[in-house]
Amino acid sequence: MAERLIVIGGDAAGMSAAAQARRRRGTDDLEIVAFERGHFTSYSACGIPYWISGLVTDREQLVTRSPRTHREDFGIDVRLRHEVVGIDLVRREVVVHDLSGGVEVRERFDTLMYAAGAVPKKPAWARTDAAGVFGVQTLDDGSALRGWLDADPQPRRAVVVGGGYIGVEMAEALVRRGLSVTLIERGEQPMSTVDPDMARLVTAAMRGLGVDIRTGVQVTSLSERDGRVCEVVTDHGSIPTDLVILGLGVSPNTELAAAAGLPLGPTGGIRVDRRMRVSGVPGVWAAGDCVETLHKVSGLPVHVPLGTHANKQGRVAGINIGGGYATFGGVIGTAVVKVCDLEVGRTGLREREARMAGFEFVSVIVESTSRAGYYPGARQMTVKLIAERPSGRLLGAQIVGWSEAAKRIDTLAVALWNEMTVDDMTALDLGYAPPYAPVWDPVLVAARKAVDALAR
Ligand SMILES: Cc1cc2nc3c(=O)[nH]c(=O)nc-3n(C[C@H](O)[C@H](O)[C@H](O)COP(=O)(O)OP(=O)(O)OC[C@H]3O[C@@H](n4cnc5c(N)ncnc54)[C@H](O)[C@@H]3O)c2cc1C
Asked: Boundaries of each FAD/NAD(P)-binding domain copy (predicted)?
């Protein structure tokens, strides 16, 4: 009898694992059944803001592989609208609720892949039955929001609560659809993934686009009229609205895992080893937004819910389940986001994180341009570097700029991953031609300034 792999969660991590396992083991050797409670598999949640804004016209463009493709091309038995509601590690069975038919069945597994993603944070005030309040975690959530935006009466005003990258992307998407948008952030600045001095540039750009940004403001409740949300009540007054988007961050989706006794780490994510095996539980694997991982710079466990990690971790798990050998080496916190025409990139530690991890450091900021100053289209770019004192090792980098900024963070991420010092970086052989960079690339200028700061 073929070994049986059950996958919980049919998106990035789960289906990457399933596909990799299948590449290495045929259908006679490994039966794969994937349960997904939503209506889609292998979709890009990252693309939802661009579908909401209208830049991406068709929802199907966000689906990389449909259940049919998984079934016909990979021999993976995908069951949509099936929610796993229990895991029995002793009997090696999962309890599955068929959301369309209403029945509950038990399914046997030899190997289990847990890839249930994350759940949006929802404080008490957000738990309402009023229509018009949306999260944007899954493509089903995105579809519900699109339905609301297209329905009659069309909403004209929106409030986005939370200024993380999802809140910021959604604010932009709604402005592009012609809505009047207020973004509420309880911190000092939106985009707290970069230092406040860099986040200020983002705030200014968003205000320039017409987003009403209110910082230092806490939501206390939502008001409704005729079953629809009509007002966001805050500690600084009320804001009338036709729509509320919740962008308050996410937590690892581990309720089922915890109930089954899978180990959770200090961040709340499932504890896995470098091969994505759940620590101390034979035959059980986990990957993606539900796990915690190691930050290579701070050495601390972190929960970084990003698609780039989910895909890589799922692939690692799948290779190992398939009998190969692969490891996931941890993260360094690299992320990019587009806010209007502004590009924001970050890698490594922010100042606060570097301090908490116990590093002594210097930080420098340089203003430069994306291309040679005389070349048409040259735009401003701000680069910040954080370097350990006295070693000069790069600990973190942030870039905010109008064009060609975001992907420059990758140069810094490679330097950081390889533990380069800012001194080493000044000698990097980076490409130069006027349409692409000034003769001294902004990355090199920042490295030189950091070397000077370390010498003082
Ligand atoms: C709006 C938005 C924009 C984003 N942009 C970016 C970006 O630009 N770059 C980036 O790197 N990342 C981005 N991300 C994050 C990225 O989408 C996630 O990190 C990635 O999807 C995580 O993959 P996953 O497979 O771990 O979890 P998910 O994609 O959340 O998949 C988990 C799946 O499990 C299903 N599920 C959960 N519980 C059960 C159960 N009990 N039974 C059956 N099925 C279950 C869910 O329905 C879901 O489909 C974005 C996310 C969002 C929401």
From this structure: 4-298
- Residue 69 Cα to ligand 1 middle (Å): 20
Q: Which ligand 1 atom is the nearest neighbour of the CA of 48?
A: 1
Going by alpha carbons, the residue nearest to atom 30 of ligand 1 is: 117
CB of 311 sitting under 6 A from ligand 1: no
Would you say the CB of residue 116 lies under 6 angstroms from ligand 1?
A: yes
Cα distance between residue 70 and residue 72, in whole Å: 6
Q: Does residue 438 have its Cβ closer than 6 Å to ligand 1?
A: no
Look at residues 149, 183, 182 and name the one whose alpha carbon lies nearest to residue 52.
149
Is 230 annotated as catalytic?
no
Concatenating the DSSP letter of every residue in 380-424 gives EEEEEEEEETTT-BEEEEEEEESSS-GGGHHHHHHHHHTT-BHHH
> CB atoms < 10 A from the CB of 16, how many?
25
Exposure on the CB side of residue 233, measured as CA atoms within 13 A: 8
Dihedral of alpha carbons 396, 304, 47, 61, sign = positive
* Model pLDDT for residues 107-144, shown as the tens digit of each residue: 999 999 999 999 999 999 999 999 999 999 999 999 99
Residues 70-115 pLDDT 10s? 999 999 999 999 999 999 999 999 999 999 988 999 999 999 999 9
Backbone angles phi, psi at 431, to 5 degrees: -70, 145
Write the residue with the smallest CA distance to atom 16 of ligand 1: 307
